[in-house]
């Protein structure tokens, strides 16, 4: 959807996907005490089982917890409102805004799926609910707290490729696919015992970087022993503590959900926003939602634009240093970094709370850190970012001089 693509310009994804490559270990699974006693299986066989899994129908509940190690509680919700939510935005029911809440804290979700054309996700927040329903050519979203509805429908003359798509974000299956899709020789993958997840027997697939300098300690995927569906996904940082991402089913049923689960009618009196109408208005007026009115500040546009499909011309180009888990993206913004002491006091406090001043052969700069993704912004406007340690970023910047 246009709104999803629009939000994607400003949101740095939580998942460190695509940097993982895999050397497949052949360690058989051994049942730990108290865990299911399942037949032995190798990592190669278990990955093949995941790839062959064709689960089309399911319903259940899963919980996702995210801990990026950011110093400010509620930072994600602040970003969400700053990215076009609230007044002047497209409404709190817009999925591109609402689902950014999943990048912070713990959330419980109900899910249902009946093939590629029908899915439903409900985000539970106390007595309030937010539902996202995909049924054929329609995508509906409803926020019970604000009584707002968002609707996106494919044009009458659109082909299947133009129909709106709605995936279930953050599910163990989606996360596992992202990590496993780029296999290579920088990662060790083994099977480490069995477990019970949502009442199902599962194998434990463990993925670890072979390279030093990565912030990723391990990725663990609990795989349903019967049908190969990932039931739980855990991403751990070398810093220890809570997992960076911990997403797993607490209940799951693989039978076909009722057709009524995917029907939706806007409640009486609810405000309905049509996504297609918004897009047409934007194209007619040239106006865009977002914290900068569709325009990014000088320098920042080069940084974020360097990650998009238009990268590759002039300033903002991305050069990749290294490979696998320790790959670092280098971007030259073409503009000096903004001076922290010239920013508002609130911004100075924010930057100072998760930024470390560093110096080296490259000059000086600031490393902005989370438990997984770290970024070095040099004073002369170069950016080094990756799922690597602070020292790895400094070393890359020194080597670039």
Describe the structure in your own words.
There is one protein chain. The protein has 9 helices and 19 strands. With 401 residues, the protein is α+β, with helices and mostly antiparallel strands. It has 2 domains: 2-260, outer membrane lipoprotein receptor (LolB), chain A (Clam), CATH 2.50.20; 300-399, TATA-Binding Protein, CATH 3.30.310. Strands 1-8-9-10-11-12-2-3-4-5-6-7-13 form a 13-stranded mixed β-sheet. Strands 14-15-19-18-17-16 form a 6-stranded antiparallel β-sheet. It is globular, with a radius of gyration of 22 Å.
Q: Please tell me how large the radius of gyration is.
A: 22 Å
CATH class of the largest domain: Mainly Beta
In the CATH hierarchy, what is the superfamily of the largest domain? Lipoprotein localisation LolA/LolB/LppX
Number of strands: 19
Distance between the termini: 42 Å
From the helix content, strand content and strand pairing, which structural class follows? Answer: alpha+beta
Q: What's the CATH topology name of the largest domain?
A: outer membrane lipoprotein receptor (LolB), chain A
Number of helices: 9
* Stretches with pLDDT under 50, minimum 5 residues: 1-33, 72-90, 157-161, 163-167, 287-315
Mean pLDDT: 74
Supply the number of structural domains: 2
User: Main sheet: which strands, in order across?
Assistant: 1-8-9-10-11-12-2-3-4-5-6-7-13
Helix and strand sequence: HEHEHHEEEEEHEEEEEEHHEEHEEEEH
